[in-house]
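Researcher: Let's run the pair from yesterday's discussion. Sequence first, then tokens, for each.
Model: Starting with the first of the pair.
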Amino acid sequence: MKRCAWVPESDALYVKYHDEEWGVPVRDDARLFEMLTLEGAQAGLSWITILKKRDGYRQAFMGFDPAQVARLGARDVKRLMGDASIVRNRLKIESTINNASAILQVQKEHDSLADFLWTIIGGAQIANRHKNHSQIQPQTELSRRMSRELKAAGFRFVGPTICYAFMQAVGMVNDHETGCFRHAQIVDKH
């Protein structure tokens, strides 16, 4: 089975993420919140570090229920700063709490975070046809637009590069290399 070249075949966690999750269209608000948080947490770090801390994030941020996360306060931030199961960066922790509040507002205005985000890209997955990963740009006009719209809605840690990685992760774009077995399998059925 041929996979995207960026996947280290020797790392089972990476292989599982690539084979089962990366690029699969997501329209569940909690899962979108999770991936937006994880992509922001990854800034300056390796993705494998974040994958290894994923369960810690799920526990620390109550399964990414925005209503629960939005209620976290200064004491919780202090507690989370001591939690080795997540990235202990105050700005990233505070942005997760802030983003939960922004999600609640988006849900009031747009019915769901999914509707808001998918509308930005036109409602359907963008299927790219890159032969190798080096052809993929770190950001696009759509990721810059998503970044602007998220920032205008009050989100933090949502720069255009983070937004593009997020778009790849949640299947808004299919950036599997054309030779990868997952490229043809990832189809937006919405």
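Model: Moving on to the second of the pair.
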Amino acid sequence: MKVETQVNGTVFQARISDRLAFSDHAAFRSLLKEIDQTGAKDCVLDLSQLAMIDSSGLGMLMIAFQEGKKNGWSLTIRSPQGHVESLLKLAKFDKILTIQS
């Protein structure tokens, strides 16, 4: 997992690239901690450059959703492509999360 972050006012943006898999769990938890520390009200995870996600990665997105609800920020998934978009649709994440094309 490679991550680039940016904060604009109350919006935290993270572009996640490469892959999101079980081995990225600790780094993803650190990202969630960073979101909380900024006091953001909205978090946008840009997945446009994410080439691969596994079931653990899908679970991490659900953890992010739950953390946001618990800590007062909303989660938006932006621009998933290819394999990643297909898995999000297959898992019906669009029924739970806000996903922007």
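Researcher: Give me one sentence on the second I can quote.
Model: The domain at 2-100 is CATH 3.30.750.24 (Transcription Regulator spoIIAA).
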